[in-house]
Design brief:
12 strands; ABC_transporter_ATP-binding; binds adenosine-5'-diphosphate; alpha/beta
Length: about 300
């Protein structure tokens, strides 16, 4: 078996204890990740969390400080052209072919690959058939990004990296883009690693989400697993008999509601139970990282 073969049972991306420093500044502090074939995996985190750095290391564009990284069975620092041909990149933007026409550019890029997609079919897939003869610099932001995706998938990649793909999109362009990613993953079995700071996007698209905050993965799981993991408890709201709005956080909302009913003379006004959401988990992780709670816990764990 050569270094670059990759069996379906292995994760498409496997990362263990990845660290990265820019000069004296540590930005990744020991990341572990497994992304499986056919998954849409989101690396979610605020600006500066280390998402782009992580993705650039996985793409082979940046040398890591330490740790083990395998992408399609190879170390990205030693990936050859065959390996690179199995990966699709949608960078933050290709800005270097402004005067080319859309179909021309795709046809040109197709010549780089052994088994490229048909440019006309690809234009239909990304919804740019009507713009085939338009110059790249005349496209709208959303159309430009869909062309970026078309360029990323022209070589039929097994693995597609999307770095902050919908930044600056209006809601309709964002929705169309999401449908495109879903189609690629569902109908074509492409594994997708997406970075985003947009919770709604992560929840909408991803089978699994890793929350990256301050260079550490704070939580990883399906959107519903992460929502359940919220340290925030369920909130029960109601209006008391004297008309005062009340709210209480509890681990056991049914018990609280049962007690409210038992103590009430009649129906409870405006009763509402709000379960923790993915957003609660995310904000909790971000706030813990910001106030140093996690670093303190890490230090205690190491000292113990
Ligand atoms: P994200 O993509 O989550 O916004 P980045 O990976 O771009 O995060 O950045 C993580 C941290 O590394 C930030 O503090 C950023 O300022 C720093 N950083 C990113 N690229 C470089 C670089 N080339 N040189 C020095 N510091 C960098």
């Amino acid at each position: 078996m050569t270094r670059f073969e990759h069996s379906p049972a292995q994760p498409v991306i496997r990362v263990r204890d990845l660290t990265m420093a820019y000069g004296a500044v540590d930005v990744l502090h020991g990341i572990d990740l497994d992304v499986h074939r056919g998954e849409v995996f989101a690396l979610l985190g605020p600006n500066g969390a280390g998402k782009t750095t992580t993705v650039e290391i996985l793409e082979g564009f940046r040398q890591r400080s330490a740790g083990e990284v395998r992408v399609l069975g190879a170390d990205p620092e030693r990936g050859d052209d065959t390996w690179r041909g199995r990966i699709g990149l949608v960078l933050q933007s290709w800005r270097d072919h402004p005067r080319w026409r859309v179909a021309e550019l795709l046809t040109h890029f197709a010549t780089y690959y052994p088994d490229p997609r048909d440019p006309a079919e690809l234009l239909a897939l990304v919804g740019l058939t009507d713009q085939a003869d338009r110059q790249v610099n005349r496209l709208s932001g959303g159309q430009r990004r869909r062309l970026d995706v078309a360029l990323g998938i022209v070589g039929r990649p097994e693995l597609l990296f999307l770095d902050e793909p919908t930044t600056g999109f209006d809601p309709e362009a964002r929705r169309e883009f999401h449908l495109l990613v879903e189609r690629l993953a569902r109908d074509e079995g492409v594994t997708v690693l997406l970075t985003t700071h947009d919770l709604v996007e992560a929840e909408r698209l991803a089978d699994r989400i890793a929350m990256l905050v301050g260079g550490r993965i704070r939580a990883c799981g399906t959107p519903s697993e992460l929502a359940r993991r919220a340290a925030a408890r369920a909130e029960v709201r109601w209006t008391a008999d004297d008309g005062t709005p009340r709210r209480e956080r509890t681990d056991d909302p049914s018990q609280l509601v049962w007690e409210l009913h038992r103590n009430a003379d009649g129906p409870i006004a405006d009763l509402e139970v709000r379960r923790p959401t993915l957003e609660d988990t995310y904000l909790h992780m971000v706030h813990r990282a910001a106030d140093g709670t996690d670093e303190a816990a890490d230090r205690e764990a190491r000292a113990a």
